[in-house]
Design goal:
By secondary structure, this protein is an alpha+beta fold. Helices cover about 15% and strands about 30% of the residues.
């Protein structure tokens, strides 16, 4: 049993560092657009806004069980733009904090490395519905893409969890810890809170909205298998930075 469900650091980086990351992320998004590449945050099964037609409805706070019980056939779980960052100074800044949280929270997970950082932009109405970042066992580990053998989806893309040789370090590993850094001040946007679902059999509250990381430059770390969401942004724009730490599957 995990005693600490998450660990957070308030205002762990200063506003200047936050703005530097925002500028870097927005610059990368504009570069990707100019070069004709999509910056849409996608999901498996194309259950993101841009992967659906106008009849689809946002899942927002609906659990999978609610969607099924309400017979909602077409919905989307995600609406945001992203860019991928792998600047060394970002790892130097945040990886030691993740290691500290791993010990301080009492998890002591066996971690090997971190994936690329995901810079995310949530505009008004943007959100990310209920999901987890990884399972806990061998079924969740990354697998190698073998061209001509690995099956592709109807849209020509590979299934989630398959990686190219350029991401060799991921193969055989699973996401173990997730971290999110809030890059702008709470006065610059409304809504957009990280929210956990601890499950129907949890002791005490089932759902918890993390207002602890609303101050600019605050960071939260939590096990990647926890169900969570980003509630809809009702005004302004929310900028965040996400990193997943990976390692061998849990035993």
């Amino acid at each position: 049993m995990i005693y600490n469900r998450y660990w957070y650091f308030k205002e762990i980086i200063n506003p200047e560092q936050c703005q530097k990351i925002i500028d870097l992320g927005l610059s990368k998004i504009e570069q990707e657009k100019k070069e004709g590449r999509s910056v849409v945050a996608t999901t498996s099964g194309n259950t993101h806004k841009q992967g659906q037609d106008d009849s689809a409805v946002p899942q927002e706070d609906k659990t999978r069980q609610q969607l099924k019980s309400e017979n909602i056939e077409k919905s989307y779980v995600r609406d945001s733009e992203i860019a991928w960052l792998d600047d060394k100074w970002l790892y130097d800044l945040f990886v030691p904090l993740i290691s500290r949280a791993n010990v301080s929270a009492g998890w002591n997970f066996d971690l090997e490395s971190g994936e690329k950082f995901q810079f995310t932009v949530y505009k008004p109405g943007g959100f990310y519905g209920w999901h987890n970042d990884s399972g806990m066992c061998n079924f969740s580990k990354y697998k190698r893409i073998i061209p001509g053998i690995t099956p592709v989806n109807e849209n020509g893309s590979y299934p989630p969890g398959y990686v190219h040789s350029s991401d060799e370090y991921k193969i055989g590993r699973v996401r173990k810890l997730s971290c999110t850094i809030n890059l702008n001040s709470p006065g610059e946007y409304e809504g957009g809170n990280l929210k956990f679902d601890y499950g129907p059999h949890s002791d005490g509250e089932r759902f918890h909205e993390c207002t602890e990381i609303r101050p600019q430059g605050s960071m939260i770390v939590f096990p990647s298998f926890l169900e969570h969401q980003v509630t809809p942004v009702t005004s302004g724009t929310r900028y965040s930075l996400v990193l997943w730490s990976i390692g061998q599957p849990f035993k």
